[in-house]
Amino acid sequence: MVRVAAIDCGSNSTRLLISNVENGRLENLLKQHEVTKLSENLIKTNEIADNSKKRFYKVLRKYLKIIENNNVEEVFCIGTAALRNSKNSDEIIDDVKSKFNLDLKVISGEEEGYLTGIGVQSSFEDLENYLIVDIGGQSTELIYDIDKRVNVDSKEIGVVMMNENFLNQNPISEFDEENAIKFFDQIFSGGDFSSRNFIGVSGTFTSIGSMYLKQKKYNEDEIDRTNISYESINHLYKNLKFQTIPQIINSYPSLDPKRAVTITSGLLLVINLLKKYEINQLKVSKSDILEGLILKYF
Questions:
Q1: Among 41, 132, 181, 213, which residue carries the largest CB count within 10 Å?
Q2: Highest taxon of the source (predicted)?
Q3: pLDDT of 189 strictly over 90
């Protein structure tokens, strides 16, 4: 048995998983996330801002203390869309190495999708005919099987991007909503997934699952494998788009307050994906790229 940690440095949040691994099976000991907003204003400046770096380094410092206290033997650390797209990602990689002696590997959208697929499949037996969707801050990965081969389609669209470009205030206006949907339609063209099992992973979907279950306190184990209908998600979206950010925070105590700013954008993406691909329900999975990253090496 080996104790391993995985860190996912995403565009909106930085997440940690510590697991015991034996014979390709995981026993998850701890999972945490912090909203760090690496991609804040990235579209305007093409750089990760100083404030974003400060938030990110503070969280990494916290995670490494947790890793040390849990006697972890090996640590894997990856970066996704924000680090792929920023001009100063090399500087941040060097900072992470010099400050924390941590090797941060920036991966492609395709590898991000493959690792997510590995993670999800590890918690489902004989998963077939699936469409796994991971909505991040700057990118969205569609992972699906054809003739038992995994395919990945990485799209340059995410909750922070949508929030900054279109839905930058709550309640959202009809004009902003229409422009957001037009942009969505430009990004997602083609593809027939109507008969597939839609599985949503990572922060947007687990947050939606927690809100749907009306949790008082976020509980990922209760959220895992929850089925949510198109009608329920549409109802949730219609409620949130007319609320202010403080109202959203007050209405959903289990929602991380830092996610309240982007959750309406996330719901818009989810509802339009379901509508586009004519899928009437989704299942939420707590397993994702973190599990996949560990299982890639074990």
A1: 132
A2: Bacteria
A3: no
**Which phi and psi (to 5°) does residue 16 adopt?**
-130, 135
Q: How far apart are CA 277 and CA 132, in angstroms?
A: 13
Residue 92 makes CB contacts below 8 A (sequence gap 6+) with 48, 53, 56, 79, 83, 86, 104
Average pLDDT over residues 276-288: 96
- Domain 2-107 shares a fold with domain 125-285: yes
Residue 43 has pLDDT above 90, yes or no: no
The pLDDT of residue 126 is 83
Q: What is the CATH number of domain 125-285?
A: 3.30.420.150
**% of the chain with per-residue pLDDT over 70:** 100
CA distances from 140 to 5, 42, 137, 298 (A): 24, 16, 8, 26
Neighbours of 68 (CB within 10 A): 10
What does the alpha-carbon distance between residue 48 and residue 230 come to, in Å, rounded to a whole number? 35
> CATH second-level architecture of 2-107?
2-Layer Sandwich (3.30)
Strand runs (DSSP E) across the chain, as ranges?
Answer: 2-9, 13-22, 25-35, 74-79, 104-106, 130-135, 140-146, 149-155, 197-201, 227-229, 281-285
